[in-house]
Amino acid sequence: MKVEDASLMTPAAWRERFRTGNWHRPTAGLALGYAQANLVILQRELAYDFLLFCQRNPKPCPILEVTDIGCFEPKVVARGADLRTDLPKYRIFRNGQLVDEPSDIRSYWQDDFVSFLLGCSFTFEGALQAAGIEVRHITQNRNVPMYITNRECQKAGVMQGPLVVSMRPVPASNLVKVVQITSRFPAVHGAPVHIGDPQALGIVDLALPDMGESVDVKAGEIPVFWACGCTSQAVVMAVKPELVITHAPGFMFITDLSDQGLAAF
Amino acid sequence: MKVEDASLMTPAAWRERFRTGNWHRPTAGLALGYAQANLVILQRELAYDFLLFCQRNPKPCPILEVTDIGCFEPKVVARGADLRTDLPKYRIFRNGQLVDEPSDIRSYWQDDFVSFLLGCSFTFEGALQAAGIEVRHITQNRNVPMYITNRECQKAGVMQGPLVVSMRPVPASNLVKVVQITSRFPAVHGAPVHIGDPQALGIVDLALPDMGESVDVKAGEIPVFWACGCTSQAVVMAVKPELVITHAPGFMFITDLSDQGLAAF
Questions:
Q1: Do B66 and A55 touch (CB under 8 A)?
Q2: Looking at the structure, do residues B15 and B50 belong to the same domain, yes or no?
Q3: Any CB–CB contact under 8 A between B61 and chain A?
Q4: Domain with A147 in it: what CATH number?
Q5: CB < 8 Å to A69, chain B
Q6: Residue ranges with strand state E in chain A
Q7: Which of A234, A256, B54, B59 sits most deeply, having the most CB atoms within 10 A of its CB?
Q8: Are residues B74 and B150 in the same domain?
Q9: How do residues A169-206 score in pLDDT, each as one tens digit?
């Protein structure tokens, strides 16, 4: 497939392609203009606590859809899709341990599974770029730097843990615009949780992220922090559930929702 | 107590007063500037379906807080308050039938209760009035007219039913402002769900609301419809749960949240 063809492919066409198992790269940049989503699949017995955790912590865990018990079709965000096959790569965790990274989870599927699709920052990064604002880790072709903060999330039942944030450096002259633009997208982490001093979040050294890769912060740039979807995965894993399935990092679910359709205003 | 004293009373002072059982009027107009909330208390076995219903239908069912199982303190919206005593009047439903309207529910409390506090339109009505926009049912000293529509909510487990809306007539010249103002308050039903022709919602006669009271619609005014919190109560009652407790209509829970603090932008 040529690159010029790829730019025309719809979300449904991409999901069809992933379904064949014939795709081994991350989904960033695919089906531009359409929202991509984090996936967390867990058993019904944990679903109430996790749903409540997301309700209490909407910035790190913005819910796009929760499927019915045992249902693998995400009827709200991609009618007709199959969550068992339509992502390029998954991660299987047993008792909190990564045990497999398949491209198809039909053999793992259980009737008591509930799937959570959570918003992903690709959407607001696209909006920032469309407004002419550089997103440093994209420019540097790196994974976004992520940090475990000293802020505890609101706990819910057995689910608890610290807030994880991502960081993007922003020139002071663009701070207002960056707050305005990302505020429009509460369904994908929304406005920043903090602007400026990393130590206010308990972050000692920006050059040493807990996950992802560090990026350059230039003179005159202010570090800006957003709640990160990794928060929810860390919280679930801490419970060491019998069986949890997620997308593999960077290999997201491509929805039929347009990025702009997610704007709150 | 004189009226001028009442206007200075804090939410906590009002809750303290209700706790004595010595208050028999609705809460509209009390503690102006602070958000009031709908209350639905149900058993844990129904809480997942109801929470999911609210997640899937955020316009009629905007969640301000879900308490921990068995906990009667709403830690997010009013730390230190007691949901068993701090509303002036409750309704007790057994198997879907209203059986009591007490001012204190301590004798009904169960360890498996989960309390849902949902946003109330008082907040956006205050914002409309602050912007100089008349709210007709307040001017006419009536209950807001409510209508059962032909739109089905997204079902969740056993919870399903039609969307219920409230209606406020707005002069055409104010429509834009009314959309802008209420869009700022997604936590209290947010933007309208429909502007104009009632028949598009299956409403045959505005003069015959299903609940509440009709209001005058003057020449040049357009009916504007918002999702209504009554939706959730109707949906819960349809299941005829063994035991459900709600606030009595108009006798809301007064939170410590400022109305303006609920604005999304």
A1: yes
A2: yes
A3: no
A4: 3.30.2040.10
A5: 157
A6: 34-43, 63-66, 90-94, 97-100, 113-119, 146-152, 162-171, 194-195, 221-227, 244-247, 253-258
A7: B54
A8: no
A9: 999 999 999 999 999 999 999 999 999 999 999 999 99
